[in-house]
């Protein structure tokens, strides 16, 4: 959606419904603007927690491993 296609309605435009607005902020906006990064040592349960999230919700998981990122960066910069 381009900026010109946005409806232009803000939370302040909605009178009342404070609890519902807060639920929207926490349940929809926050995860979109601040995605969760699971990190920690091997065996800490990161993969299992990610699998639970996928099974219990309809969200997808982006799997990223640090050593892969280092190799891509290494190749891109010709180092």
UniProtKB/TrEMBL annotation:
<keyword id="KW-0547">Nucleotide-binding</keyword>
<keyword id="KW-0067">ATP-binding</keyword>
<dbReference type="Pfam" id="PF00004">
    <property type="entry name" value="AAA"/>
</dbReference>
<dbReference type="GO" id="GO:0005524">
    <property type="term" value="F:ATP binding"/>
</dbReference>
<dbReference type="InterPro" id="IPR003959">
    <property type="entry name" value="ATPase_AAA_core"/>
</dbReference>
<dbReference type="GO" id="GO:0016887">
    <property type="term" value="F:ATP hydrolysis activity"/>
</dbReference>
<feature type="domain" description="ATPase AAA-type core">
    <location>
        <begin position="36"/>
        <end position="65"/>
    </location>
</feature>
<dbReference type="InterPro" id="IPR027417">
    <property type="entry name" value="P-loop_NTPase"/>
</dbReference>
<dbReference type="InterPro" id="IPR050221">
    <property type="entry name" value="26S_Proteasome_ATPase"/>
</dbReference>
<protein>
    <recommendedName>
        <fullName>ATPase AAA-type core domain-containing protein</fullName>
    </recommendedName>
</protein>
């Amino acid at each position: 959606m381009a900026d010109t296609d946005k409806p232009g309605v803000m939370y302040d435009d909605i009178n009342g419904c404070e609890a519902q607005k807060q639920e929207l902020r926490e349940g929809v906006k926050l995860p979109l603007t601040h995605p969760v990064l699971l990190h920690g040592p091997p065996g800490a349960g990161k993969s299992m927690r990610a699998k639970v999230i996928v099974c219990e919700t309809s969200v997808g998981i982006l799997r990223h491993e640090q050593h892969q990122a280092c190799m891509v960066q290494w190749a891109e910069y010709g180092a």
